[in-house]
Write a structure and sequence with these properties.
A: alpha/beta; 2 domains; seven-stranded mixed beta sheet; B: Rossmann fold; eight-stranded mixed beta sheet; 11 helices
């Protein structure tokens, strides 16, 4: 596969495109364990290493827990490090996931989002990554193949920024994005080098300048350590924007923390994350054509949460239809809605927020689901009610 | 043997005359208990390898007592991530060093990476990560198990390396119990089953032997496993000053034979033709206090059986390999 350096779009499976982008980013260590639907990414990376197209160490670990452990080791040694996982794998590695940002190791991990068992299900929703929501990583959701490809390069730039030094999770929907063949524009290698210089750091294990990493933090230091890491995560936001802006300058594709689609004068706004947003845009077009004042706001950056950007994007909408792809058992709604509701609570003119659970475990989300949730958000919202939650399309 | 001529990390034998002088790279002031056999082993590791290596610790006594922020006893590069994953972290460190060396970002010189775990972190929760790392054959990888025969850091709970009959907080002796009811897991044999070039047992009571094994492990390209007998006076309910003596008794009673497995071939390093009674080894330790003479006889039989297995395996091969 010679996909790189294309001036014209190349038809390629998104997983393979991500691997090609990781090659363009010249990752130095890849440690990964197979799990559907992530495997095509690391299979292709193995190929690239085996063929000498990517000068890297591929560590075929025996579990996801060891994948993240090896990634922390190689990143601590000063090597640019990539891994990918999904679902049960992410949960299995969770213990290590929480440690990486505390050690300020700029690992990039693609997560092909998939449901969590039980019942066993290999298909797409967001329950894997939402289960580790508080892991402290920078978290990005890609919408389509081009974005997933570009973000695979941008994520390293963000992670390794001296002002950031935080690991980045790149979420892409399993199957519905990872396994689709899309037309992809690949950045040119020398331009990628200009955008993403080789990783050089003093924050590493070095026999000449010894450092102890991962010390015990007792009650007198733990709070401070957590605050320092959180401060760093919050402070990374402008550097995420900067990485997006500089990418646009070189490659012409501009990304924002929060994307708005046809939200001008919108009365109702759908809020979504990930590839489902492409379906939502088509649905918005159809509703707009029918005279409905509806728009879409998409969260690209999930952590650190783009608070101001989201508030600005929602603007003066009367009704929000917030989509969740994961729910919180025992609580009246999903995590995205809960956060948005909390953030909007103190606003003077806050919209009526309804929450809809869509597309669990690969359940198809057709356009009419978006028409339905807009109708419901208006119907419930116009009664003045807050806190509506609905699982859409449940067969009873 | 192919690797003996291509050692980039030179093997220099330590003798009483060449014993490294001066402070080692584990600073004083750590919080280990009096008489700790693990910290003694760590210091021998430091004396053996100096400062030109990287260490990875599993969570446990040694990690906790050497690294309470903002202090660290480690005067060479050191990393701790979690309990069960020291072998995986070390394999990542080696992978990172390897690619950086290949790209010219590091000097073209092997850097030994030494993962250190306790018996719980090795034989129980860490065995998967260890097995993976050994099987993947990382070139500069050495794993040292500091075996004090129970989960001491959490308060003396039994592990699969706890010997038969030992009373721990989760295998207590009682009316219906003789303490630990299972025989110690044979970790050196498990490590050797991965077809790695070097496996050894070592004891801090035989410090030159131990240091040379560590140097050998670091020098050989390919993964190595060293199983260190590390007395824990606190957990064994034993006087602190008996720590080294109990380590010596363990070897001289055949309880803990000193041997190497080089390319799969056993080499018994210390023949014990006239062992001291196992009872003499057991009696100093409170964890065995409840055992009856019949129990001790059963343990002695097992100890002799395991020793003879190694002696016979050693005899089956033609002499020492180095």
């Amino acid at each position: 596969m010679k996909a790189a350096d294309s001036a014209k779009p190349v038809g390629i499976e998104v997983s393979l495109a991500i691997a090609e982008a990781v090659k363009l980013a010249e990752a130095e260590v890849v440690a990964a364990y197979p799990i559907t639907p992530q495997t095509h990414i690391v299979e292709h990376l193995s190929d690239l290493v085996a063929n000498g197209e990517l000068n890297a160490e591929y560590v075929p670990v025996e579990s996801e827990q060891s994948a993240m452990s090896a990634c922390m080791g190689s990143s601590a040694a000063g090597a640019r490090t990539f891994t990918a996982t999904s679902s049960q794998g992410l949960i299995y590695m969770a213990e290590m996931v929480f440690i990486a940002p505390m050690m300020r190791l700029p690992i990039v991990m693609a997560v092909a989002n998939r449901a969590i068992s039980a019942p066993l299900n290999i298909w797409n929703d967001h329950s894997d990554v939402m289960s580790i929501r508080d892991c402290g990583w920078i978290q990005i959701f890609a919408e389509n193949g081009q974005e997933a490809t570009d973000m695979s390069i941008i994520s390293f730039r963000i992670a390794e920024d001296k002002n950031v030094m935080m690991p980045v999770i790149l979420n892409l929907d399993g199957f519905t994005l990872s396994h689709f063949i899309e037309p992809i524009l690949f950045p040119e290698q020398d331009k990628v080098r200009q955008y993403l210089p080789p990783y050089v750091t003093d924050h590493k294990l070095d026999v000449k300048k010894p450092m102890s990493m991962g010390l015990l933090g007792g009650p007198e230091y733990f709070t401070e350590a957590k605050k320092a890491a959180n401060d760093a995560l919050l402070a990374s936001k402008p550097y995420v924007t900067k990485a997006f802006d500089e990418f646009a300058k070189i490659f012409g594709r501009q990304y924002k923390l929060v994307e708005s689609y046809r939200t001008e004068d919108a009365e109702t706004i759908i809020v979504s994350m990930g590839s489902i947003s492409e379906t939502a845009m088509v649905a918005v077009d159809e509703m707009r054509a029918a005279g409905e004042k509806v728009g879409l706001v998409r969260l690209r950056l999930w952590r650190p949460f783009p608070v101001e950007e989201l508030r600005a994007a929602i603007g003066g909408a009367k009704y929000l239809a917030v989509v969740d792809r994961h729910f919180t058992p025992g609580f009246p709604e999903g995590p995205v809605a809960t956060e948005i509701r909390a953030l909007m609570y103190h606003e003077e003119n806050r919209p009526r927020i309804s929450n809809f659970l869509l597309g669990l475990g690969g359940r198809d989300v057709p356009r009419n689901h978006f028409q339905y949730i807009v109708e419901r958000a208006k119907e419930i919202g116009s009664t003045g009610r807050q806190g509506h939650f609905e699982m859409v399309g449940v067969n009873e | 043997m192919k690797y003996l001529n291509s050692m980039e990390v030179p093997f220099e034998k330590v003798t009483a005359k060449t014993f490294p002088k001066g402070p080692d790279s584990l600073a004083p002031g750590h919080r280990a208990c009096q008489g700790c056999g693990e910290v003694l082993a760590l210091r021998l590791l430091m004396k053996a390898l100096g400062r030109e290596f990287m260490a990875v610790s599993a969570t446990g006594c040694m990690e906790v007592c050497t690294g309470p922020f903002p202090q660290s006893a480690w005067e060479m590069p050191w990393i701790h991530v979690a309990f069960e994953n020291a072998a995986a972290v070390a394999s990542g460190v080696d992978a990172g060093n390897t690619i950086l060396r290949r790209k010219g970002k590091l000097p073209d010189k092997r850097i030994p990476v030494v993962a250190i775990g306790g018996d719980g972190g090795t034989a129980d929760i860490g065995i998967q990560a260890l097995s993976g790392a050994l099987e993947r054959y990382h070139e500069n990888f050495t794993y040292i198990c500091l075996d004090n025969e129970a989960y001491m850091n959490t308060g003396i709970q039994r592990s699969s390396a706890t010997p038969f009959g030992a009373s721990t907080t989760t295998s207590p002796a009682g009316k219906l119990s003789k303490g630990q009811s299972t025989w110690k897991k044979n970790m050196p044999a498990i490590a050797a089953a991965h077809n790695i070039p070097y496996v050894a047992t070592a004891s801090p009571a035989f410090h030159l032997d131990m240091m040379n094994k560590i140097r050998r492990a670091a020098a050989i390209p390919g993964p190595a496993y060293i199983h260190v007998y590390a007395p824990c006076p606190t957990g064994w309910r034993m006087k602190a000053e008996l720590s080294v003596e109990s380590a010596r008794l363990a070897v001289n009673s055949r309880v803990f034979p000193l041997y190497e497995i080089i390319d799969g071939q056993y080499v018994l390093n210390k023949k014990v033709d006239n062992p001291i009674p196992v009872a003499d080894y057991l009696k100093a330790q409170g964890r065995f206090r409840h055992l009856t003479p019949e129990d001790v006889a059963a343990i002695t039989e097992r100890v002799n059986h395991e020793y003879e297995y190694i002696a016979k395996m050693s005899e089956a091969f033609n002499g020492p390999r180095f």
